[in-house]
Amino acid sequence: MDRFKTILNIASKQTNLGFGLVALLTAGGEQIFSSVAFKCPCNELNFLYGLVFLLVPALALLLLGYILSKKMWILFTGIWHNRAKLCCWKNLATTCTAFFQISSTALVAPSSWFAVALLNGNYYECAMTGTNVSVYNQYLCKDMNSELDCAKKLPMLPCDKRNEELLRTLRSQSQILGWLVITSIMLSSLLIICLARCNSPISYQQLKFWRAYAQEESELMDLYTNKHAKDLAERNLKSFFNQMEPANITTPSNKDWEKISLLYKFSTKDHFYSTLHRYVETNQEGDGIRMVSVRSNESTDNPAVLHFVDGGMVSI
């Protein structure tokens, strides 16, 4: 178990390795799913059945990628209350750029499923033998003696393995599409990375340092948050059970939390590496909340969106 955690930790720090691990797990899951759960009905439902198995799991993986994205919830938490700021063109462009980056990461698993499913060919065979496009059916049956009988028997083709020629044709079409999908994904990824690096305001080594800093800050933030929450909970419990005055504990105000919870875009003018770094270097007001036994003036009617945490998990 410790070795498995170590592997996951390394994968989370190395983006390319993490993407490769996600793609590998998705490909393995598709192979198991295809051999165990998929059974083509070989009737008029072929097209719908094959299309559902080809697209719906990819859609589910895409939604799961959004749900588990920490940046997703940093971006959208509280956005309804700040919609006036969002109307600004600059803020809207930054939000769209951040959402594009989140989507590019979330698309790794569904694109892997889609490509591997096409290379496998089972879903495509089932779907295309149930299509009602007469031109395509005539194309498949052009070398057969009776095209009319062939078109009528197409839905039974995945269950009847005697006509291997048609099955090979369908499988070859599916694999060609699969390789085209893989090539297009690789080319688009390369172009996007090249454009991003060409427009980078910092050098490669500084960008590497920025990523290392952001990773370390995120891990330490989780540790410090848990420790501070534990200290505050222990203080409150001791005060309640011992019926004594609580000790003073200073915690950041709502405004302070909001300042460090934004997605950060690097600027060469400020030379800060995160919103937390900028807050520490520029904020000298010390307007934290001192947690004592007084009633807060703030509303306690928190919106339901606070049930989501940064890691994308939902409290049930």
What can you see in these coordinates?
The protein is mostly helical. It has three domains: 1-37, no CATH class; 41-199, no CATH class; 207-246, no CATH class. It has 14 helices and two strands, in the order H-H-H-H-H-H-H-H-H-H-H-H-E-H-H-E. The chain has helices at 2-13, 15-36, 46-67, 70-76, 83-86, 89-106, 108-120, 122-128, 134-140, 147-153, 164-198, 204-242, 254-260, 275-282; strands at 249-251, 289-291. The protein has a two-stranded antiparallel ribbon. Helix 2 packs across helix 7, helix 3 (46-67) packs across helix 6 (89-106) and helix 7 (108-120) runs antiparallel to helix 11 (164-198). It is elongated and about 90 Å long. The model is unreliable at 1-8, 10-14 and 285-316 (pLDDT under 50). The chain crosses the membrane at residues 47-68, 176-196. GO terms for molecular function: monoatomic cation channel activity.
Q: What does this entry show, briefly?
A:
Helices cover 66% and strands 2% of the residues.
Strand content: under 5%
Q: Which class best fits the helix and strand makeup?
A: mainly alpha
Average pLDDT: 78
Q: Work out the oligomeric state of the chains in this entry.
A: single chain
Radius of gyration from the alpha-carbon trace, in angstroms: 27 Å
Instruction: Kindly report how far apart the N and C termini lie.
Output: 26 Å
SSE pattern: HHHHHHHHHHHHEHHE
Strand order of the largest sheet: 1-2
Instruction: Please count the helical segments.
Output: 14
What characterizes the major β-sheet?
2 strands, antiparallel
Estimate the global geometry from the Cα principal axes: elongated
> What is the share of helical residues?
55-70%
**Low-confidence stretches at least 5 residues in length (pLDDT < 50)?**
1-8, 10-14, 285-316
Number of domains: 3
Q: Report the strand count.
A: 2
Family: Belongs to the CALHM family.
Membrane topology: Multi-pass membrane protein
Keywords: Ion channel, Ion transport, Membrane, Transmembrane, Transmembrane helix, Transport
GO cellular component, one term: plasma membrane
